Amino acid sequence: MSQGPVAVAPAASAPARINAAPGFIRGALILVAVAFLGIFLLAPAFAVFAEAFSRGFAAYVAAISDAETRSAIGLTLLAAGIAVPLNMVLGLAAAWAIARFEFRGKSLLVTLLDLPFAVSPVIAGMVFVLLFGAQGLLGSFLSDRGIQIIFTPIAIVLTTSFVTFPFVARELIPFMEALGGEQEEAAVMLGASFWQTFFRVTLPNVKWGLLYGVILCNARAMGEFGAVSVVSGHIRGATNTLPLHVEILYNEYNFAAAFAVASLLLLLALLTLVAKRAVEWRVARQLAAGERAEAGEE
Amino acid sequence: MSMQIQVRGVTKSYGAFHAVDNVTLDIRSGELLALLGPSGSGKTTLLRIIAGLEQPDRGQVLYGDEVMTNRAVRERNVGFVFQHYALFNHLTVFENIAFGLRVRKVKEAELRERVQRLLHLIRLEHLAQRLPSQLSGGQRQRVALARALAPEPRMLLLDEPFAALDTKVRQELRDWIRRLHDELKVTSIFVTHDQSEAFEIADRVVVTNVGRVEQVGTPEEIFERPANAFVLDFLGRVNVLHGQAEAGKVRLGRLEVPYPEYAKQTALPATGYVRHFELDVDKAPGLPGGVEARIVRITRVGFSSRLELLISGDEAVLHAEIDPGRFAALHLNVGDTVFVAPRKAHVFLKDPGDSPAAGTH
Predict the structure, then answer these.
(1) Cβ contact A254:A262 at 8 Å
(2) Domain boundary, last residue among B198, B228, B258
(3) Chain B within 8 Å of A144 (Cβ-Cβ)?
(4) How many Å apart are CA B22 and CA B11, to the nearest integer?
(5) B103 vs A204: CB contact, 8 Å cut-off?
(6) Nearest CA in chain B to A298
(7) CA dihedral defined by B84, B88, B90, B96, rounded to 10 degrees?
(8) pLDDT digits (tens, 9 = 90+) for A181-233
(9) CATH number, domain at B276?
(10) Using a CB-CB distance cutoff of 8 angstroms, which residues of chain B are in contact with residue A196?
């Protein structure tokens, strides 16, 4: 009940403190921030587009509609198209298990969840080579059966799924914990089945957290370079994703084409930022409403 | 639709902690029962076991004559009201109440009619399209109650239903729940740590402590004949005095009360409980068994006055509560010498051999 005023107080006093700083300090801080933003973010972004269009619009269109580029786009979409839904389901399951149940090894699971983030992407790729490669643990088993995984799109999908696994679960766990189990218990007491509870109570309550995780997961799935580079084999038109294709074009001194393809990834990044911002805005509103609900005013 | 509930030898432990320890209890059909106890006394766990939200380690719960142990929660048709409401944040008041009907696939026309009737019952028709976050605490609790009642449950279980509300709203909801229960006659159990809440609205009260049932009875029975020291202590506003029982009497410091239950000559340690309002105070001597005391403090407790008294001679501190009329008639001031005598004392003997014998004078 007393939460309301306490939560409001810091927010209300924050602007006053900033205003207390002398004008020139404020100006200097803003200048530093803007300069940094310009040099490290806007200038490179501008350079990408400038270089992409350096040989004219026709060359740009030709570069991104080239057969190998289209194949790379296709593989990137395929990898993201499998990794994202897969990690959405696994992430939901992991977040549910962690937020709702007490079990042995729970803290170990929470720690392991971050493994794909903690380990360098190159190592992540090498792990799969060690497992499935010709000299790998399962290598002879697989080659005896005529199955090849490394240097095929399967490896790309597997590695992408691995490096993007934590996003959804990480975003969802705080949401699920904030929601608590009571609403679900209430639903079950009212006669709802497991799936009715999930779709009518749990999912609507965590949907923005889930979407946020999915957006981040998708951005990483499409942009991943290091891990997929190790397992890809760089077979043109077969195992190249967009980021790998950019590298190949760049190494061939085909700068205009490299930057044309890079501009696609940049557009994706901008789109992600807009979507992320929109979702964050919704989430903030929802959390504020939840806090109001908890404060139980009156 | 009302239902008798039986709890038989139910035990539930969390590690070394016995939340519910071999509890057997009969809940009569159509009664309003309060589970009263301090926090950590296992009352909420017991309620959740009855609901099926927790599984007992041992023992059984029966609805009517039906053993419920292996019956899924969703099939039990029990209304449950959570302490923090647990309303569905993303659904309107209307949809919250309709939830139990929607999952049962009740026809739209019947659903609307039933929800409308419940909205009328909780007097919130005008807020049907609001979200829970737009309601006050008392309104939310009423919505939670209507939601629990919508599927016409065979019993209603309420976990500390008023704990999160402020005093005035709490009092209103209390009266309202009692009237509602008289109207619907659905077997109801509510958990509370507030004795006045339990005594005011329950037909019967179960006093619990560290996982065990200390006493079951009507508010009057528990008040008039507390089963043991814990119940007396928990009911509060009582003077605890230590002394000895001997030859049909109990000596508690300088106070002496008759105790015919123990006629033997060997002295036994005893504890006497004298409630604040069962201690008579008079300015003139003449109270039977009265001793002299000095008033050290006078405080107002609601409408009555509480005196802090120092017994002359042994410096024991006693409290007495007297009603406004008597207080005015006596013209009492701090420092005055008065005479006090217990009108009634609950005595418990500490006998190493026997279980504590209870007696009342």
Answers:
(1) no
(2) B228
(3) no
(4) 5
(5) no
(6) B136
(7) -130
(8) 899 999 999 999 999 999 999 999 898 889 889 999 999 999 999 898 988 88
(9) 2.40.50.140
(10) 103
